[in-house]
Amino acid sequence: MSVQRDIARRVAGHLRDGEVVNLGIGIPTLVADSLGDREGVVLQTENGMLGVGPAPGEGEADPALVNAGKLPITALPGASYFSSSTSFAFIRGGHVTTSILGALQIDGRGRIANWALPGRPILGVGGAMDLLVGARRVIAATTHLTKDGEPKLVAECALPLTAERPADLVVTEAATFTVRDGGLVLTEVAPGFDRAWVAAHTAAPFREEEA
Amino acid sequence: MSVQRDIARRVAGHLRDGEVVNLGIGIPTLVADSLGDREGVVLQTENGMLGVGPAPGEGEADPALVNAGKLPITALPGASYFSSSTSFAFIRGGHVTTSILGALQIDGRGRIANWALPGRPILGVGGAMDLLVGARRVIAATTHLTKDGEPKLVAECALPLTAERPADLVVTEAATFTVRDGGLVLTEVAPGFDRAWVAAHTAAPFREEEA
Amino acid sequence: MPRVTAATLISLDDAAALVPRGATIMVGGFGLVGKPVALVERLLEHPEATELTVISNNVGEPGKGLGRLLAEGRIAKAIGSYFTSNRDAVLAHAEGRLEVELLPQGTMSEAIRAGGAGIAAFYVATAAGTLLAEGKETREFDGVPHLLQHALRADVALLRARRADELGNLVYEKTARNFNPDMATAADLVIAQVDEVVPVGAIDPEAVVTPHLLVDHLVLTP
Amino acid sequence: MPRVTAATLISLDDAAALVPRGATIMVGGFGLVGKPVALVERLLEHPEATELTVISNNVGEPGKGLGRLLAEGRIAKAIGSYFTSNRDAVLAHAEGRLEVELLPQGTMSEAIRAGGAGIAAFYVATAAGTLLAEGKETREFDGVPHLLQHALRADVALLRARRADELGNLVYEKTARNFNPDMATAADLVIAQVDEVVPVGAIDPEAVVTPHLLVDHLVLTP
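YS: structure for the whole thing
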């Protein structure tokens, strides 16, 4: 899990004070714990709440208080609750600054595939498409490789795309890519990795940040 | 004003317990006072409230509590407030049982013209069109004649229609017409009037109720 | 101050009996949070509640809530956003026993709201250009492709609320609110399973989430 | 517990200075009830707040609120449902000084909600077959003609609320709520004139009507 936590911590570093942030299922959920006492970032969850706090302590979970992954959460002072249609009205209406989403694959234009699993019937989509269309900024948070060691960043996604709209930023344990002019730009290599590793493990074309 | 109050009282007699009723501007507003302690009828006002009570006493008006005619009202126990879009969502969605509307003219099919004044620019419509489309039952409450003594019930409205959808019931001080099979049926003659008077003062074709 | 317009308090069995064969039902809840589990499970004891079309974000979990109805073959079709979490649903779909209509969660909740608001259909950018756009009308607004989504309605809505007053005004609890207020608007018959019924006037008029004009029946499950 | 995301408390003049020449502004209120009169009238002291398009149910009354802006020639166009109550508006329209777009009140409030909800357009039966259908697309759903209504958005929304907390969460007062919560969603910049600012946590999370993510600035007018 330490790789997932590393990614979440790296993503948290890209969040700016004043942002309203929605966390997707999986690695994005871990970003909450990496925020520490960053009071400037407010979390929204699409099942109908603004002002998500940290996970409750052992035995303190409120059954009526969960996030989009159905995991127990807490409410911060100033929180509010609203219906699903209102929550997604906020999301589509551009009132959520940043959506952090997991990814199964990401293509060379930064587009995300994260809803349909290979070889399985398509039976779940949740709120990912809504978030990708509505959030002002999208950060993809993903391991650099699949469990089988294959690159997740590929020239063309074999899996169905979640939206035509690309991510703005792709953060893995090894690298950060900014999506610029319709392509991936490597803007950061994580400590413990180098450009050669990133190049060898990225199947999508990408440019290097110009100095 | 006693003619107007008569009409309002006659309309109130057509309301059934359990109905959620919206009162238009003018004569319909007077229906509230004719309900007395009829607790079974609940009033909705399209500016965002359910549970309208009687007009406040002298000097007791709350500036934040008005009806669609911007007149002071009171709130009954169990009242609730909601936004304009929610209020009209309820109206269009069929959650208001009965809409009581005033009329400038009504045609032979029961269709109402009540928003555009003759010879004046069209600069106001309010919620009348929404109510006519959304309410499950529409009652037109109007004097039988215009101020100039002309029939308000006419074969074809000279004024623009408020909706294609007809009223279900037309109540004047002299008569009640039910709209049935696309035409007006005289179902009641008020005390003090007779069928001859109604026939002489109604320019729309109508049928007599069969015994 | 009870009124004739008050929602009537009925039993679980009387409520379940109001769901006829072949009905389309909306069921509130996100997973099991805010789901009227007692109402849903009582349907199992009413054999007529079958061949159902269920509009709900999920179809429960195996052996729980809608998952039990599914296991007993009562659900013919499910309209929702996320069925993957119930392996029975995946299996039933694979074996052709369950028809599925998958919608993005925001499009689904908006379609329910539209159904209750007299909006026939609306245009959203969500899902345009994806597999879920197949068979849907596309139209550009300001150069951005949008899909036409039709409203959803049901015969019966089964809701879960925290508290009702005797008229049927409802308030919810935290994230258990979710789809419930939307579904309260979009069905011909609305039944709310509540933890508590309080006197009229005990709920702040500014804090009512579902006004009583939307609610037909209450079922009290303490 | 103030946060960086908190709505900032600004003066009437700072607020008025945020309305540029040619802006489209939404103004809450039904008549003068729930109208941010102090904010609106402060625009008079800012000459740049002119050539405005105003989206509001009414354009005030002569000599009051938006009526004063109109009298001073600041309003080029009004989008609303009921202008007849202001004889100045009727006159300005007759003399060609005021362009008017008239919408049924429900269609107008729904178009505002759509603008804030990422809904490009929607179909309603309201006004189909009437004079207000002229120039609008018509389409039948289940044999009933519906009009296509596009969403409305604004550069700035001027709201009136009863109370804000320090983050900008808003609650309203009785029928002074009306268009304000809808408009809070549909403008690039949202300014609320409030009677009171309370500490964070003082408003019940279940009773917040406008969550603070929608609100940019508060103006306190005690």
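YS: worth flagging: The mean pLDDT of chain A is 94.
IM: good catch. Also The two ends of chain A are 34 Å apart (CA to CA).
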